[in-house]
Amino acid sequence: MKQQGIRQEKSLHRRVTLDGKSVTLEVRQIDSECWTLSILGKGDQVSEWLTCFGSASEAMTAGLLAIRHDGIEEYFEDPAFQQPALDN
User: Fold this and answer.
1) 86 to each of 38, 43, 49, 82, how far by Cα in Å?
2) Rounded Cα–Cα distance for residues 41 and 27 (Å)
3) What mean pLDDT comes out for the span 25-45?
4) Which H or E element spans position 27?
């Protein structure tokens, strides 16, 4: 018996640590020809690509290259959401 309307989503995760900071690359297949990329940082920090990648490998490579090019700090924590330091 074949069930219709149920789609099994595929996802891959890879943890990357540099200079004591860790982020997680998350690659999800949304249809047979489209994979999405997100980089999950500290707390609720999420960077999402609006690009549709042709394969999981292509999406993962794009994430690794972004970390190499921009630095892991770019994806680890957003300075706009950091608490200001209290002066004593």
Assistant:
1) 33, 21, 35, 12
2) 14
3) 93
4) strand 21-31
Residues 6+ apart with CB under 8 A from 55: 35
27 by Cβ neighbours in 10 Å (0-12 / 13-18 / 19+) ranks as buried
What is the per-residue pLDDT for 85? 53
With a cut of 60, say whether residue 59 has pLDDT above it: yes
The residue whose two tokens read 């690794």 is 64
- pTM confidence score: 0.77
Q: What angle do CA 19, 22, 27 make, to 5 degrees?
A: 135
